[in-house]
Amino acid sequence: MEDIEAFSVTYRARLDEAELAKSVPENITLEVSSPGVKRVVRIPQDLERFKDRPMYVKYFREVAETGSTSEGDGIFRLVSFDIEKKCCTWGLADVRINREKAGKGRPLSKRQREWCLDTTFDSLCLVRLHSEI
After folding, report:
1. First vs last C-alpha separation in the chain
2. What predicted TM-score, i.e. pTM, was given to this entire model?
3. Coil, helix or strand for 31?
């Protein structure tokens, strides 16, 4: 918030100077917005802050049989994370897209509720907040 306030004070002072010099059009507008519901989550800095929110997670995993990597993604909830070990444990988030896999109008199954995914911080390609809106 302090950064926004500092920017606003500086911007307003410069705008006032430009108005006095008659170098600003009268119909100028300034639009300010936030990253919103699709905010990218910084790893590991934002994990604690957004741990209770559903997140879209795109990740790489090693295929044991071939030694190659494959990409996976889903809407997960953060179960736990360890800063020192640089890893996370994810579970399926209780959101519509995950519930529909059990059948329309049905809750998550026991198997879905117990499912977990362990990832390292390095294996995470993209983590962003998920909204059903």
Report:
1. 26
2. 0.69
3. coil
Q: Which residues are within 8 A (CB) of 52 and not within 5 positions of it... i.e. 6 or more apart?
A: 77
Strand partners, 76: 55, 92
Structure tokens, 132: 């059903």
Give CA–CA dist 107/76, Å, rounded. Answer: 15
61 Cβ neighbours under 8 A, 6+ residues apart:
69, 70, 72, 119, 123
Give the pLDDT score at 77. Answer: 96
**What is the average pLDDT value for the chain, to the nearest integer?**
86
Chain segment 17-55, per-residue pLDDT in tens: 887 887 777 676 766 655 566 678 889 999 999 988 999
Could you tell me how many residues make up the chain?
133
Radius of gyration of the chain (CA): 22
B/e letters for 15-42, b = 16+ CB within 10 Å, e = fewer, are eeeeeeeeeeeeeeeeeeeeeeeebebe
Sorted by sequence, the CB contacts under 8 Å of residue 43 that are 6+ apart come out as 88, 121, 124, 127
